[in-house]
Amino acid sequence: MSRSNMKNKKSVDCVVVTFNRLDLLKECVEAIENQTYPIEHFFIIDNCSTDNTWEYLQSIKSEKIVPIHLEKNLGGAGGFNAGLKTFINKSDADYVWIMDDDTIPTSTALEKLIDKSNISSHLGFLCSNVRWQDNSVAVMNIPSPDKEWNKYSDQGVTKVKSASFVSIMFPRNVVKKVGYPITDFFIWGDDVEYTLRITHDYHLDGFMVNDSLVEHKIKQNIATDLVKEESLGRVKRYYLAQRNTIFYLKKHSTKKEVFKATVRQGVKVPIKALIKSKDHRFYRAWVSVKGTAAGLFFNPKIEKVEKRDNFK
Hints:
Strand content: 15-25%
Domain Glycosyltransferase 2-like: 14-139
CATH architecture of the largest domain: Alpha-Beta Complex
CATH topology of the largest domain: Spore Coat Polysaccharide Biosynthesis Protein SpsA, Chain A
Number of domains: 2
Radius of gyration: 19 Å
Order of helices and strands: HEHEHEHEEHEEEEHHEHHHH
Family: Belongs to the glycosyltransferase 2 family.
CATH class of the largest domain: Alpha Beta
Pathway: Cell wall biogenesis; cell wall polysaccharide biosynthesis
Protein name: Glycosyltransferase
GO molecular function: glycosyltransferase activity
């Protein structure tokens, strides 16, 4: 990068949320440190891990890395809420780049995002092209395309309505305008809600940068599926998925879409679970019905950015 470009370059902070995945976190940290476009501050949010993550973070000797320890596990949603509050209150960088601890960016991932930061005067976010370990598309991280998805294709981006938090960058002014992710979501859907809030409610543009590549280092390249879920311990989490989906559709979509999702999650998925799930069929069906019903009444607070957020 030339001296003139360095002088005028846009500053970027990074936020990573971690919970009990120390080996993956170390790999993620190394990938962030090896970016061709350097970050200013690196905020690592430890979601009250119990696997020596905090000890590792305290042992790192780096002026850029700022570890934040949460007193209890707030889920990914609460972790990113805390991370963006830290970004707003502890930094003055132009952008924040966020991801989970199992995201492994290629060395040019951030540089490619920054290259497209002037693509729209109404920019809401830029997200990466997420792949699995064999370089196939990461199924659970496919952004929702905008109706004008190919309008900017000649510029190497795809216009999207919503995206996951697996490598996504927000301008500071957007966070200040739309507020923070909803902590009460805990997990699943917080990223979709937040990005829909940006594109639907505030009419800002979201883009996937096609050549900003990251790996989502998950064991299986499958979408979340209550009917096929292998881990019984994870089945209860689908209550949150169903509840959160109904909420963000209520907030950022049409009554027709809410009705379709209610029928799908409250009727079709339970019937499918009763017929096709390999075990605990009634439990799976009940989780989907209960979560869907809860979503109709779920009304969490959306936190706005205050002049001085009291974040500790």
